[in-house]
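Much of what follows relies on a compact textual record of a protein's fold. The record below shows the convention in full:
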Amino acid sequence: MTPAGPFSSWERSIAIRYLLTRRRNGGVALISLISFSAIALAVAALIITMSIMNGFRTELTSKILGFNGHAFVVGGAMSPEGRDRMVERLRKVPGVVQAIPLIESQSLVQGSSAAAGAIIRGVSPQDLRATKIISSNIKGGSIAGYGRGEDGGETVLVGDKLAESLGIGVGDPISIISPTGDATAFGEAPTRKTYTVGGLFSVGMSEYDQTFIYMPLAQAQLFFGRGQAVDTIEIKLDDPDKAPGLKGELARAAGPGAIVSDWTEKNRAYFGALQVERNVMRFIFLFIVALAAMNIISGLIMLVKNKGRDIAILRTIGAGRGSILRIFFMAGAIIGLLGTLAGLIFGVLFCLNIEAIQAFIEWVTGAQIFNADVYFLAHVPARIDWGEVALVLVWAMGASCLFTLMPAARAARLDPVEALRYE
């Protein structure tokens, strides 16, 4: 009974028959089913968890880097003439998509029913229209009146969650109070001015939607007493990952006295924490997959014990130890393979339909399971990384095969004389 290949047809048929054993060996089938289910659930949980964490990182990165710049220039020639020339030089650097002069300052804002702290960002109308994460996400009103009128226009854009908390809407007045103002005989008096809400934006990240207000640059310079100056020049690239490598070229384009920084420096702790959490979760779930695969050992040990007489007969009619090892190895590997495939299918389908699943659970329970105010995003994100999925599949199959070897080797070492002694 020498096999024609690594696994002969009769070895495969016996391995499959043993897995489908019923009646008095039903306990073995039950343990095989438990092993199959444990591997499937562990693989699915790992795929879902890693996909959600990838989704969080991708969504947060795209929102943060879409809303904010990829590199920042401060200092240098910030007079109107010198600044314009600097912006032109920066825009000519390969990879630069936008170079936006802006003003950013914290203020107190007051609506019809409440007051709150906010960040006022002064941006020119043309630069705001080119910032797609804002101009393409206007949920109420429009940006048509932004930057028009005397003194650069008195129309502002407000984040929709901030407007909701203030009790205001499109066309309503909003009072903005600057923390600094004109000097008087009694000290410095804060500047207060009323603007009109021209539109509401929603970028899908609550940290920004409930904090930021966009004001025309000329009006921001007037309101905050900046004269013709700006606070920084914000640069956006076609690929944010190029930012660290372009700092030298950006510094040369900005000229002497300018200081260039990039988003990796500004958000180092935040993205570092995401990466550490992702690596730790991957390790934990890989360990869980290995533990699930260990269930195969108990099932195969019981199978070997129950099939001792069959093993002895196979040995006496010419089956070698290698054939016995391959039969029981295949039995365990089939459990691991089927469990891994089931987990792959379930995990991928779950990730592809995660928004529908979230909506269904919220509809059934009547509770919001994903609060945007807590998690910063409006829905549970999921991004499948097929490279990681391949790693999960290889790990699950490798663990299944590894834990199958011990009981399979035990079956191969079984002495047929001892096995038939009490039969």
The chain is about 55% helix and 20% strand. The CA atoms of residues 278 and 360 lie 27 Å apart. The longest strand covers residues 96-110.
